[in-house]
Records
---
Amino acid sequence: MFYLNKTPSLLKRLFPSFIWEKQNHKSNVFLTFDDGPTVEYTQQILDLLKTHGVLATFFCVGANVKKHSNIYQAVLDDGHSVGNHTMHHLNGWKTSSKTYVANINEASSFVKSTLFRPPYGKINFWAIRKINAKYKIIMWDIVGGDFDSKCSVENIINNVLNNVKEGTIIVLHDNKNFSEKTLAALPKIIEGIKEKGLTFAALK
């Protein structure tokens, strides 16, 4: 599985309308979680974030919110922000622009947000203008790698802590398929970021 833990500057320059990081944003970093809410892990992540006094942003799949509206509400009640992650976790490279935009619009009935993140980071390029008209397209600066079966908990921690800086947007997951590693890595990630004198904020 090929992916980059740190987003290259060239990619950021190619898509300047996307938000890859938050520049000149005091000492804040932005922890984000994709693919939930899930019964198995979202609440555990919420509990852990509350214990450490950390705010984050959850990019939610509309179908999951429909099934688990109580957990989605718990995310909001704890002061976190949310973003649209399509209704059915669509791969934009394999979906027509019409279907892709319709799926985002369907999700907006369940996820009330002006933030959007494309699943897999694979947006439908023909739909960008329409999406930008309604949403801030949020990407990331650091990929933790919790979705990678070959990536250990220690690797995930190091992927984040070796690259984090002021304004960084970090992507992790509350996806039931691999969130055990997320839960194991998260406390050390939070502690390591705090030790660097950085603080956490939710995206708006």
Note: Residues 179-195 form the longest helix (17 residues).
---
Amino acid sequence: MSRSSFDEQWEENVYCQGQQLNRWPSEFVVTGAYRYLAGLGASDRELLALDLGCGAGNNSVFLAKCGFKVLGVDGSETALKSARTLADQEGCEIKFVRGDFLNDEIWNDQEYDLVIDRAALTHNTRSVIKRTVAKVAQALRPGGWFVSELFSRDHSDVQFGLDGDDGSYKSFSGGYFQNMSRTFFADRSDIDEIFSEHFDLAALYHQTLEEERSESKAAVWKVIGVVR
């Protein structure tokens, strides 16, 4: 996926419609960051964090308030405009860049302590996900953490998508993903395939949330990987 291949559905159908412009950080990002900092202990060096698919900047702002120097990356200019506004309102100096996950300018020979992916990478093909995870591993300091969320095969809305033959689905006719782009749904073996080459798993959760009235079920993998 190059920068020019950014799926404009996110711009036109999601962010331009005022959707997913979140203000508060993800619970799992909060948990992951605090666990990383607790294990790190006292440190005088500057801590660097990369927020992949930063959206409206809610998680980037949280990381900045935790003491990280943050780079937030997203393909949507609308989302980045909201992110810059939120950072200004919260008094945080954060660099936000419009770009693609595989764009070399993002990585820029930096060594990150923490990389977060709040269910952004999961909206790609298996190939792009694996290539990006390899780049994350190369960009982290030894012992650095990758906090990532991927949707699970147990998600009930898989049924609305067209099978892309690689674990990803597109052109959803209904459900949560209807106005979004391609989405990858992982099973347990996919998690091993994607992460095990580069990371030891410090934590792995499979979270489901069922809506009783509609009988729909949201399901997601929550991963904390420590780079080797």
Note: The CA atoms of residues 48 and 117 lie 15 Å apart.
---
Amino acid sequence: LGYSMIYSVAETEDKIADALNQIKASGAQCLLFFPHHKGAVFPDRERKDIRLSSLPTLVLESRSAGLNYVTADMERGTSLLADYLYGIGHRRICLATAFSRKVAGFEQAVARWNDPGVQKWILAEEGKTDEDDRDLARRILTLTPRPTAVIAADDHAASILISAFRGAGVPVPGEISVATFDDHPKLSQFSSVPLTVVRHPCREIAQEVACWVHAQFTNAGNRRFRREITGTLIQRESTAAPATQQVQNG
């Protein structure tokens, strides 16, 4: 569209107000804001700083009360994965993340099935290192009965879980199916098994952002703008129907 852009990073919350003041002083006419991820919405302090800047603002990848936003519908995306696993026969499913929006989508799917034969677990890694994911894999393998399917936090975490499962002699997807999110462009370089994913709708989000920006420069930007976009389910070799619902810890 030919509009110039200014990029600024506030590494800590106390630097957000200064960054916004610098952006406004530069003559910016609107703001695209990517908040710190701390749950379903971003902190009140960040929201207050944005309002004080008085710039038309679009929040990316987080819902916001009172502000415009574009975000992936993580609840719906997680439900898609859960429904897919349930549909191919899995009745013992572990959600391997505590991210609130994914937990909500998972819980919604399980409630919708209304199936007393379903067993579910919601676990999460202690941190974000590869070793944390390996620890999580070991915890999953000790569950009794063992889950036949796992929904990982993201594609990198999924690749670590798969490596740990296979290293413990548990084939994927032979005994445990693994599904996840994102679909990183270099996924094939770090996952030993092609991953079933809900692809993050990056392109669709970018297109919505461009539409909003254009509206700010054409005097059509006063209407409330809120978009939630569901990613695309892509089935690959990391998932399959469970060999049996009677698989126990090996």
Note: The chain has a mean pLDDT of 89.
